[in-house]
From TrEMBL:
It holds the Pfam family TPR_8. InterPro entries: TPR-like_helical_dom_sf, TPR_rpt. SUPFAM superfamilies: TPR-like. Coiled coil: none annotated. TPR repeats lie at residues 60-93, 94-127. Transmembrane segments: none annotated. Keywords: Signal, TPR repeat. SMART domains: TPR. PANTHER family: CELL DIVISION CYCLE 16,23,27 (PTHR12558), CELL DIVISION CYCLE PROTEIN 27 HOMOLOG (PTHR12558:SF13). Residues 1-22 form the signal peptide. This is Tetratricopeptide repeat protein. It comes from Archangium lansingense.
Length: 211
């Protein structure tokens, strides 16, 4: 499983568990679609999400989930449109704003990515996933101290997200802090992180997420 897919899956699982702090958790069809996605049937999830937003065009959470799933299929322009629709419907949909930041990151528009994450944090400064995303951008920019600071902040806010723990482990690895790297690796594994093989490849130098 690629690092990109892991991030998309983590976002979708997060959305299935809870919406933004201003809204109630999703029920019914979105729970079912999340289960489809977790099974690995991403294309089916996209098909079902498209049907859902056609029937419920003002469901900003569903548009956000659609953006995540489309991005997982590398349908970048379509994902961009889905995120934009979600934010149009709900300017406080921090998951969609963070998704837009990820799109900027993919396009190597790192300043715009950081701005999107900061915009999400201006809405909810306890949104741990935005800090973890900022950590990834900081790594891309070679700002190791900032990466660790962002990662530690994200982890302090959410110790239950395996992707946040894994991201922080990677930052510690590049900093040469093997003790903390191994602690966070163990935490990620205990939380059910599904990309342990990817982590091992990073540690072995076979994969460089900074590129």
């Amino acid at each position: 499983m690629s690092a990109a897919r892991l991030l998309a899956l983590a976002c979708l699982l997060l959305l299935a568990a809870c919406s933004s702090r201003a809204d109630k958790a999703p029920k019914g069809p979105l729970d079912d679609i999340s289960a489809v996605y977790r099974s690995g049937a991403v294309e089916e999830a996209v098909t079902r999400l498209r049907s859902h937003v056609q029937a419920e065009p003002r469901d900003d959470l569903a548009w956000t989930m659609l953006g995540h799933a489309l991005l997982d299929l590398n349908q970048v322009d379509e994902a961009d449109a889905a995120y934009a629709r979600a934010v149009e419907l709900n300017p406080r949909r921090i998951e969609a704003i963070t998704g837009q930041g990820r799109l900027f990151r993919i396009r190597e528009q790192y300043d715009k990515a950081m701005a999107a994450y900061e915009r999400a944090l201006a809405i909810d400064d306890s949104y741990a996933q935005a800090y973890s995303s900022m950590m990834v951008v900081a790594l891309k920019l070679g700002q190791l101290d900032k990466a660790i600071a962002h990662g530690e902040k994200g982890y302090s806010l959410d110790k239950a997200d395996p992707v946040i723990a894994a991201n922080l482990a990677i930052a510690y690895h590049y900093a040469g802090n093997t003790e903390k790297r191994d602690q966070m690796t163990q935490a990620a594994q205990q939380l059910g992180f599904k990309g342990m093989d990817m982590l091992r490849k990073v540690y072995a130098g076979e994969v460089d997420v900074r590129k």
